[in-house]
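Worked example 3. Consider a protein that binds manganese (II) ion.
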Amino acid sequence: MIRIADEVREASAVVALETTLVAHGFPPGEGIEVGLAAEQAVRDAGAVPATVGVLDGELVVGLTPAELKRFDADARKVGPRDLAAAVVQGAVGATTVGGTLAACAAGGIRLLATGGLGGVHRGWPTPPDVSADLEALACVGTLVVSSGVKSLLDVPATAELLETHGVPVLGYRTDELPLFYAAHGGPPVSARVESPAEAARVADAHWQLGGAGLLLGRPPDESLDDVEPLIEQALAAADAAGVHGQAVTPFVLSQLHRASGGRTLAANRALVIGNARLAGEVATLI
Ligand code: PSU
Ligand code: MN
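Given these inputs, the predicted complex is written out as structure tokens:
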């Protein structure tokens, strides 16, 4: 039911990569290219990438490039609740951070890289939408490297919920939780770290002390500081179109890519690759 690639099984430093951003986070074709570039960034840092997805009745940990190409916009978005049905029904299942964390638990993988974590949607409790990423992170002993929480969400509420779940929120050379496209303006992190080695030591200590998941927030290299009005427009458009549940995040991201003239697309791509590289660096030190 779970297939772990030989290279992943044998490596000492592994970074899991998710496939929801590949299938649903970018325009057709571009997501696969971003996924392959993230894999290369992990390798450049000296670690082995394990891209995760459901394919041909198995949860695959370490997709080949040819397999990754099958994760297009027709793929199911697969969170923790969706894994079993996707496996049994032979679906192409693009795993979210939460779904990918289940594979990390099965494969003993200590690092995961993504663009932005899911979280509490704006306006909670209407809709009562909280990403399953948070519950998974609370349970699985993996360090997730992201540019914080996607800013189309209620980021301060998400940070509070992470505290409730005992998830350390580390800032990579920053005191503020990055806001995905923007470096500044987020809630305070629970601790700041200055190097991959320090992040690795904190994660290791957290696990020795009985903790589970951690978040390491890396600010985007180039901060987009004028996206908030576009986010508000995109959320209103989602509402007007009756988009809800799992479809909200992909809908809003693609609206933003269009409305920003591609600037959010370029930023998203760069931050995914940068996060993969940092995760690779930390992985070699754990
Ligand atoms: N990072 C990106 N783009 C994405 C995601 C992360 O740059 O599309 C995905 C991740 O897979 C994350 C998901 O788990 O968005 C959250 O979706 P939701 O809000 O429906 O829980
Ligand atoms: Mn959701």
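Take a moment to read the result before moving on. Residues 263-283 form the longest helix (21 residues). Residues 129, 131 surround manganese (II) ion (ligand 2) (CB under 6 Å).
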